[in-house]
Design goal:
The protein is 48% helix and 10% strand. The chain has 15 helices and ten strands. The strands form two sheets. Strands 1-2-3-4-6-8-9-10 form an eight-stranded parallel beta sheet. β9, α9 and β10 form a beta-alpha-beta unit. The chain is globular. Bound molecules: beta-L-rhamnopyranose and manganese (II) ion (2 copies). The site of one manganese (II) ion (MN) has 5 residues, from loops.
Amino acid sequence: MQIEKYKIEEHNQGLLKEHRRRLDFVAQGLRDVEGLLGKLVEFQVAIPSWALGTGGTRFGRFSGGGEPRSLEEKIEDVGLLHALNGSSGAISLHIPWDIPKQAGSIRALAAQYGLKFDAMNSNTFRDQAGQELSYKFGSLQHVRKDVRKQAIDHNIEVIKYGEQLGSKSLTVWLSDGSCFPGQLNFRQAFQNTLEGLQEIYAALPADWKMFVEYKAFEPNFYSTTVGDWGQSLLYASKLGPKAYTLVDLGHHLPNANIEQIVALLLMEGKLGGFHFNDSKYGDDDLTVGSIKPYQLFLIFNELVEGMDARGMNHATDLGWMIDASHNVKDPLEDLLQSVEAIMLTYAQALLVDRKRLVAAQQGNDVVAAQELLQGAFRTDVRALVAEARLRAGGALDPLALYRAGKVREHLIKERGAGTVATGL
Ligand code: RM4
Ligand code: MN
Ligand code: MN
């Protein structure tokens, strides 16, 4: 299904007067509102193809109905999001969940919705039907060469699919590691993994990037072969200039200072991209900004400061992706909330008065520094983000329009109540 332009316009008309009032209120206290709006309009966040169905846990999965049955329908769903918010102009695919059988027509379909293909994701964390060798004891780290080769070949195949779609990056997340002390020789596992990544790296097209994602735990719980940003950075540095670290917000040990990690990776020119989500415990993959919004703000504050220091383009120089998926919400509503949270936080980070912050830091004025950050964080920027959406052709209140337009009901009618999307 598609949301017609006139429906969005009608919806906006009804809300315009109140929107203007709110916008004027927040804009009055700000400098360079136009510059800020321009940045918000440009900023796009990729939607993961595996988050369009209801996410499960190992205890079960409760499908909400109307889930996309094919890659085409996944693209249609992201198209709906992008029509509503103007900031979801890309999709990130997972292979083999989303193999594009006819890449040409898939690419054309995505273009119809104004979508690009963001990073391609390989999958060696579970065995696929008909797969010759098992990843039970790891993939690139495996003690057996033939298993490692199978994993390398899979990644190279993913790059090939990506090339056909116009993607420019490969994200490698490995579940490799060990569950018990003594199971692995750490150095051997690292060495095997590095050699595998080197072969994959050698197959990257010239204008591609490789993102090495780390995660401290799960499904291995004693050690992980790409367990933290230090290990990821080590691989990325040894691989070469096209390799970067990818930060997934849910992949750290409790209370990790993620904003500091981000600052240092940016300083080294080795931060490649982001997987946004939120969590209470670990890799919970909850809606962005739903649990620790101030932490997200502090991360964005470092991103903006660090990118500006290196003259980077906020919208295009890093890979911005959501990686969230769970049990209890309509996935499309949830993704609208996640994108909104990212845009709001980015806007707040843009509001930080950098000159005054530097002065406070130089003067050891801790109180002033904290006041500056919290002042930006506590600014209600919802009208600014809504204005950016309006200018991008989106809806002033995407969630309200989604509900009023009975989108989920339509999807259930079209696709059925019992459909189950490929993904987690
Ligand atoms: C992992 C990791 C990867 C994602 C898979 C589905 O925990 O976050 O990025 O592709 O989950
Ligand atoms: Mn991730
Ligand atoms: Mn994860």
